[in-house]
Structure to design on (376 residues):
């Protein structure tokens, strides 16, 4: 029984492991913490798997558990990179020399994303994953209006970095 | 909107070079529980040390006077420090086990380390039980080898007692206490470390199945 469940979990997880890797990519910046977070999320998913009833899609469930694990882990741990207000981050970034190549733009945006608060990271991540607001609000457990407001704020700010 | 689309495009492009974890590796990941079991062994061991050394501080001086009369005070102090040193060494080993299990990459290595941890825990338990029994026996042998002093110390009022009978009862009481304490110690280690070791064993068996 347990063996079967385990086999099913591992197969399904293997197919969808990209989700977990991407969560790790948003929340960590080096390989070691990427692996740590990946392991932690995998264990949490496996622990929660017996209670997964298939009400939502497996991928949605994985987004939710993955993001929640990342958020709680980074809230608790002191190893995490200290997060700052978006405005202060932007202020610093704006003051650095600005080069308008695509690569440079991307670098700046990723840099800004990495310094966002835990929840904001989750938001931008789900946005990049092409999720709509009802999915975002369900996954992060915030209201749809709240998600919309926060997201718009991040978007406009990201744009102003590049067009000061 | 261009910039955000650019970001989105790049994000999608990155998907191609995300790592791929194999079935076996995922299996191992969800069995990494071993490291948390070993962590608990470490924590309980440290808590035990703190508990006993804390208890030692609470024992009133007068209680130790009897040992003073038998010139056992320095012996007791020395054994105590030795004991702390040994426990600290065990804590170091537990810590090392925890660290190595935490970073084990291959199933084989993980299994070997689980066996090692199991051995360390067994040694630790044996050490504690043997140490207790041995110390009690030594103390009693020393005290009973000088019966006059023993009676005088325990019966300072010099009330009339049958010396032989008194010693016999005292001996029986001491043996009974030793047996009860021995039983309690065994029970304690069986329950606490037994549970943790069983979990570790289960994990080991699962890993073994995977390896074949």
């Amino acid at each position: 029984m347990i063996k079967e469940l385990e086999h099913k979990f591992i197969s399904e997880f293997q197919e969808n492991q990209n989700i977990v890797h991407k969560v790790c990519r948003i929340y960590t910046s080096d390989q070691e913490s990427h692996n740590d977070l990946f392991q932690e999320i995998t264990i949490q998913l496996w622990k929660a798997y017996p209670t997964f009833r298939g009400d939502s899609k497996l991928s949605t469930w994985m987004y939710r558990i993955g993001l929640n694990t990342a958020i709680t882990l980074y809230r608790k741990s002191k190893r995490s990179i200290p997060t700052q207000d978006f405005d202060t981050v932007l202020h610093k970034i704006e003051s650095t020399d600005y080069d308008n190549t695509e690569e440079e733009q991307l670098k700046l945006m990723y840099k800004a994303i990495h310094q966002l608060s835990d929840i904001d990271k989750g938001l931008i991540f789900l946005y990049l994953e092409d999720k709509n607001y009802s999915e975002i609000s369900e996954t992060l457990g915030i209201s749809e209006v709240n998600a919309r407001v926060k997201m718009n704020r991040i978007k406009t700010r990201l744009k102003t970095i590049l067009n000061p | 909107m261009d910039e955000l689309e650019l970001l989105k495009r790049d994000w999608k492009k990155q998907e191609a070079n995300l790592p791929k974890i194999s079935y076996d590796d995922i299996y191992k990941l969800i069995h990494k529980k071993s490291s948390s079991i070993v962590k608990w062994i470490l924590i309980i061991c440290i808590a035990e040390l703190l508990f006993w050394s804390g208890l030692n501080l609470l024992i009133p001086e007068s209680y130790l006077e009897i040992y003073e009369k038998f010139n056992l005070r320095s012996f007791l102090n020395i054994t105590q420090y030795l004991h702390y040193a040994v426990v600290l060494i065990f804590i170091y080993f537990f810590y090392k086990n925890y660290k190595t299990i935490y970073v084990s990459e291959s199933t084989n290595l993980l299994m070997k380390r689980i066996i090692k941890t199991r051995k360390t825990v067994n040694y630790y338990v044996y050490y504690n039980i043997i140490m207790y029994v041995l110390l009690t026996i030594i103390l009693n042998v020393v005290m009973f080898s000088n019966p006059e002093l023993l009676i005088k110390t325990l019966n300072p009022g010099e009330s009339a007692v049958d010396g032989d009978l008194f010693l016999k009862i005292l001996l029986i009481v001491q043996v009974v206490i030793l047996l009860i304490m021995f039983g309690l110690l065994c029970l304690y280690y069986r329950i606490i470390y037994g549970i943790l070791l069983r979990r570790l064993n289960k994990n080991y068996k699962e890993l073994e199945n995977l390896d074949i």
Remarks:
- Residues 78-82 of chain A have pLDDT under 50 and may be disordered.
